[in-house]
Structures are given as structure tokens and as C-alpha cells.
Design brief:
Elements lengths: L1 E10 L5 E7 L8 E7 L1 H12 L8 H11 L2 E12 L2 E10 L2 E7 L1 H11 L3 E3 L1 H7 L1 E2 L4 H17 L8
Parallel strand pairs: 4-7
Antiparallel strand pairs: 1-2, 1-7, 2-3, 3-8, 4-5, 5-6
Helix pairs in contact: 1-3, 1-5, 2-3
Amino acid sequence: MVEVRVAGVALDTSGQHVILLQPVEVGPEGSKLLPIWIGAMEATAIMVAIEGAPTPRPLTHDLLRTMLGTLGATVDRVEVTRIDDGTFYAEITVRSGDAVHRIDARPSDAVALAARTGAPMFVADEVLAEAGVEDVISEAEAEADVAEFSKFLEQVDPDDFRE
């Protein structure tokens, strides 16, 4: 397992949202990014957590964090465990007292929850080897992507999140 951080959330050339996970430490083979395509709402949920943006009502991942805390449970870590036919799979490790539970999750949900709880994120070596791409994005480009998405968040109407 390789520990990762969110390098950014961006739009690809077709307008699809992609989260970029980057190893915390650069390995001997250089730095890689793991792009995972996610939906617009999931991208917003991750960026809201990373930016610490206020929301008028708790989003789903805020609710999960509150429920876990109320029940005395903590998120120990999240892991992107495998890729199968282009679909990524993740697990959230939750500790409640002496019990440890591994819960199946979409990577976007796992990352959104980790961003809210401060839990470390990991990617399986095999996943990074299979789906990782060379990191050719400069820090300035990543910051520009985050700035662009932050501008989008400022323009979002809170009613967009109401059901």
C-alpha cells in the first residue's frame, strides 16, 4: 500500500470530473498520479471538505462523520484496494472500541470521508501500477484546477444540494 493525498480535482477534456491521488512520498520510479473519474456531486463533496467550505446543511459525508463520532467510532484509514474492468473499489476501516470493521465503499465516498476525518488514504501497489500515470502536472496547474473548482463552489446555489 502507498499512502496518498488528494493532488486535485479537475475536469478532463470531455468535462468529466476526476480526482487525482498522489503518493505522499515519491518512489524511486518517480511520481505517479492515480486518476479516478467521479461524478459532479462527489467532486463537490470532496472539494467542500478539502476547502473547508461551509454548507447550509450537512452533506452526506458530514452526516457519516457525525454518526461515527456519536457512536464512538473512528475512521482509521481508507484504501483503494483494486480495479476491476475499469471500476475502482475502496474500503473504509472503522474502529469502534476493540472492534475493527472494513466497509466496502466507492473511492469517492472513501476520499470524501477521509477528507472530513483526517484519516490517511492508501492505494494498493497493484492499482497504482495498473492505473497510475506519470505526474506531469505542475504544482501551479494543480493549484489552478483547485482555484477554478473553488470558484465553481462559490457560485453553486445551496438549493442544488437539497433533495
